[in-house]
Amino acid sequence: MSERHLSFTLNGERREANADPRMHLADFLRHGLGLTGTHVGCEHGVCGACTVIVDGAPVRSCLMLAVQVDGCTVETVEGLAKGGELSPLQQAFANHHGLQCGFCTPGMLMTLEAFLRVTPSPTEQDVRIAISGNTCRCTGYQGIVEAALTTTAAKGSRP
Amino acid sequence: MKPPPFQYHRPQTREELGALLANLDNVKILAGGQSLMPMLNLRVVAPDHLIDINRIPELAGIRETTDGIEIGAMTRQADILASPIIRDRLPLLARALEHVGHIQTRSRGTIGGSCCHLDPSAEQPAICAALDAEFVAIGPKGRRVIAAADWFQGMLQSALDDLEFLEAVRFKPWAKGHGYGFAEYARRHGDFAISGAAALLEADGGGSITRAALLVFGVEEAPRRLSEAEAALVGQNIGEIALAPILDAARALHPMEDVQVTADYRRHLAGTLLGRAVREACVSREQRQ
Lengths: 159, 289
Ligand SMILES: Cc1cc2nc3c(=O)[nH]c(=O)nc-3n(C[C@@H](O)[C@H](O)[C@H](O)COP(=O)(O)OP(=O)(O)OC[C@H]3O[C@@H](n4cnc5c(N)ncnc54)[C@H](O)[C@@H]3O)c2cc1C
Ligand code: FES
Ligand code: FES
Hints:
- The complex is a heterodimer of chains A (159) and B (289).
- Chain A has helices at residues 25-32, 88-95, 105-118, 124-130, 142-157, and strands at 4-10, 13-19, 51-54, 57-60, 73-75.
- Chain A is an alpha+beta fold.
- Chain A has 2 domains: 4-78, Ubiquitin-like (UB roll) (Roll), CATH 3.10.20; 88-153, [2Fe-2S]-binding domain (DNA polymerase, domain 1, Orthogonal Bundle), CATH 1.10.150.120.
- Chain B has 289 residues and is of the alpha+beta class.
- Chain B is built from 12 helices and 12 strands.
- In chain B, the strands form 3 sheets. In chain B, strands 4-5-8-6-7 form a 5-stranded antiparallel β-sheet. In chain B, strands 9-10-11-12 form a 4-stranded antiparallel β-sheet. A 3-stranded parallel β-sheet of chain B has the order 1-3-2, covered by helices on one side.
- In chain B, a hairpin with a 6-residue loop joins strand 11 and strand 12.
- At the A-B interface, strand 4 and helix 3 of A face helix 2 and helix 6 of B.
């Protein structure tokens, strides 16, 4: 089937590309653009590893077609660190041992990044519900939740 | 690539969508994709044509009309949940939406997609049934309004025919300050529920119930209203409701059975969850006066 042209903003930069309509966004980011930070686990919407931010909202990139981001703004985990410096959320993950297996981490980060932008001072319960769509199969959510909560505390204390 | 090959169409108006449906064979409509994309990735469906309706602005939005509220089929679950109009006038819908998937699925998933897909455990079509919503469909002969009682044709089967699409869902909100309650049981937060229940109550100044709706979902193949138990509630005092007729109604249901959940267990859940939903409805009625 013929490819379609799409133009969109990816981590702040304008991008032009072609994609087969049946290619989902996660595969397109990984194989089409070489951005392998976005991970794929289940590819049917259950695990959350593939979460990216599209027009400000966290979405499962395995459940969107690449052609659907034509005209949109897409953010992936590669866009979080600026000038070699980790984002506050990434730094908090490192500090609190929230980066456990590493496989689910990009999805956890992008979910929490989107969530914290609209919910600047969540409770622990809010954070747990927000990441309920990101499956952790290894050690549990404790470090991840602590990282999210300290990020908001740090942001809140900023003048 | 996971999905099988298809031709991709992206209409921008309802008319273009209607024309595509009329002229193409083996078509699938793509709304939020939160049910259809998994099926495409797993190749359990293989349409020749995929019609993406995400760029038809007229299909999305929440409108207050003279006699109620109309929610466009493509309105995202996240937008419905965040809407002050919905919280105020259709609080049961907002209450139930908190249980639909996760923030990353509600950001894409739509009310129309859920009502067309009709998973027996889906909350949104169940709430539509509890509120006697109307489904507005557009087909070659124009618009047609389908009552909730006629919408559910069985497991995963709505009343739409192949040439039609869902345009919007219309609601008539209950009286200001009505009571509402919702309860479901799922293994983990955001998973599809095994079963659930909802209750709506109106009462007069003395606390005597004047109107009631009771519903279970994820029990039979489609959401099920318990009309006899509803009638039995009318006239009772909100402070001392007799639960026995409701539990009897739950025992008379014909639940689905699968490898994980027996019919008996679903019947048990139906009774327990109905009790919780009714109690919650009574409390919310008191608090909202
Ligand atoms: C991890 C996960 C958890 C979930 N948990 C829940 C849950 O707890 N409860 C729940 O109810 N759902 C749940 N869902 C499914 C829910 O998110 C979907 O939004 C919903 O089932 C389908 O809506 P959609 O907009 O995504 O539709 P799509 O997946 O795009 O479409 C679904 C079907 O409806 C048809 N369709 C869509 N719109 C129209 C229209 N306007 N006219 C005609 N046909 C149409 C499509 O052709 C398709 O057959 C979950 C999904 C995931 C991935
Ligand atoms: S890979 Fe997308 S949700 Fe699992
Ligand atoms: S931290 Fe990745 S699976 Fe637990």
